[in-house]
Amino acid sequence: MEDEEMEKKVQQYLQRKGFRLAELALQEDRNRLSTSAVSDVALHRSDNDPARYHDGYSKLRTWAYSSLDQYKHELLRVLYPVFIHCFMDLVAERHMQEARSFFHTFREDHEVMHSRDLQKLEGVLSPSHLEETELARSLRQNKFRIKLCEYSYELLLQYLQKTQALVVLGVINEHITFEVSPGQPSLISDDVDVVSLIGTSKDLAKQINQKEVHWGLLEDSVEERMEKALAESDKIEAESKDAEADDNKKRNAEGGKQGTSLKKTKKDKLVGATGKNVKTETSMVSVAPRVKPELTIPATPIEVEQSILEDLRNRAQLSSVALPSVSFYTFLNTHNGLNCSSISHDGSLVVGGFSDSSVKVWDMSKIGQPAKTASSQGGNGSSQGGRISTVDEGKKPYTLFQGHSGPVYSAAFSPFGDFLLSSSSDSTIRLWSTKLNANLVCYKGHNYPVWDVQFSPVGHYFASASHDRTARIWSMDKIQPLRIMAGHLSDVDCVQWHVNCNYIATGSSDKTVRLWDVQTGECIRMFIGHRSMVLSLAMSPDGRYMASGDEDGTIMMWDLSTGRCVSPLLGHSSCVWTLSFSSEGALLASGSADCTVKLWDVTSSTKALKMEDTKGGSANRLRLLKALPTKSTPVYSLQFSRRNLLFASGALSLSSS
């Protein structure tokens, strides 16, 4: 019998026998079961209703924006994680149209801080894309950590309890971890890590950063030997001056010129003492510890040592009150064909890598010379002063290197300018001789375009960064890489050697910077804090600090020994393409797509860090000393020479009319 027939027979039996109470009880049970079934169906329909995500987020957004100003900026931090997970849940439940509508309705709330992530998520159009898209997969596998003060956290809990917003509550429980701190709410400008993704990557970073880093300089390096020789010669010279002054004092003790001589002697001693103090105080290099090299260091030729000694002897002492001279070279009429540029360490050569696969090198000593031919190409094509022209004026003003089969994305000179490296989208790296003007070697190993290549501080070795998510270390005399550094989750966009050649640093589109041991190929530091792809890196001369610049215009200074951010530098409004420390480490120069070169005071920040080591890194901000606008020329590269002259280059595309 069916259930309905059975119930009907039982009811007829109860009526026939006169069991009225039993009949009423049966009817009541039947009504209750029917009501329960209807409510279950309604709840099921509510769970599958895509509008619940729109309503839940919209109410949370309205509440957060209407909160007290003192706590509003903290409560607004919750919106971004809730927004992206509501969107991805709609996609996972196959509500594609509702997901797109939700995304476009509320994306403006997060465009300023997370524009790059939104561009990637915009391409998520099906549940399969959630697994295939790296960012979406990372967001769904890891949790967000959000810093709130105690009172802001209480306000959020009260809202969730009062509104019974099940969708928002589910997203928060599953995807967000709160770090609650007592006291007043923090300002977002004081902490770049208030909203960050944690989970496997964060745990990995904590584990990696416990490893030891020997950040000092190489013992018995060429620079150290030259500095000692220079110091000894200065000491001998000072002693001879003192002896001469004493002789003059004795000779004139009886004469009428005694007062004048004493005055001159005091002045000489004062000048000598002042010069000595300046060198000791401004140099970060002299106090750095010494470490043994892990790579075989090539021998340095005598003429190179003499050149270094001469540079050290004529080095300008820079500080916050003594800023460097800047020489800016501009490429004219490149018509968006210039992809990269680089300057040799002495500023004598400038190289450009172009989209037509060519590499061109200009000799700065010949740029200012008048053209030997009588013909003239007009104002825009002329090559005058510090400007570089790619126009052919009868005789080419540059040396042309051809060999790549794709756009050239990076070029770098060896420390002494005798060799040049270039990397291309053809996945190769080429070594050129600037003396022979010829291609010497083609290095093949990467599988995809090579975005960056850099010589080591001692030459001979070089490192490359590629779209294949790896960095590789090479030796000039071997065509295969010595080490492969794998671990980044996206493109490795830039690479930089540590000054002692025992480590390399890599910056990636996964928004992290990593430090690698060249001997083991192991990652020993992972720096998390950037909000966009990392485009540039620089190491301080003493090897303790590293600066990194990203696509949003933020520069971060890191302490390699602790893995901690010393200071975020906020000032640029566009991509930071190049960074360079002065020779003694007192200044940091940054070049950006916002057409400015900025000079930052490093010494004051690092001193404050040492004095107040218990405080957070964000308390010690580097001071902007000067902003140098280039009118309308984005800055591609910066290079401090050993004499502390700052060289810069950029490209200005002018119309042909």
UniProtKB/TrEMBL annotation:
One Pfam entry name: TFIID_NTD2
Keyword Transcription regulation among record annotations: yes
Claim: Chaperone is one of the keywords in the record: no
Superkingdom of origin: Eukaryota
InterPro entries per UniProt: TFIID_NTD2 (IPR007582), TFIID_NTD2_sf (IPR037264), WD40/YVTN_repeat-like_dom_sf (IPR015943), WD40_PAC1 (IPR020472), WD40_repeat_CS (IPR019775), WD40_repeat_dom_sf (IPR036322), WD40_rpt (IPR001680)
Ranges occupied by WD repeats: 331-365, 401-433, 443-484, 485-526, 527-568, 569-610
Coiled coil: none
Alphabetically ordered keywords of this record: Nucleus, Repeat, Transcription, Transcription regulation, WD repeat
CDD domains named in the record: TAF5_NTD2 (cd08044), WD40 (cd00200)
UniProt biased composition (Basic and acidic residues): 228-254
GO cellular component: nucleus
Domain TFIID subunit TAF5 NTD2: 48-176
Protein name: TFIID subunit TAF5 NTD2 domain-containing protein
Organism of origin: Urochloa decumbens
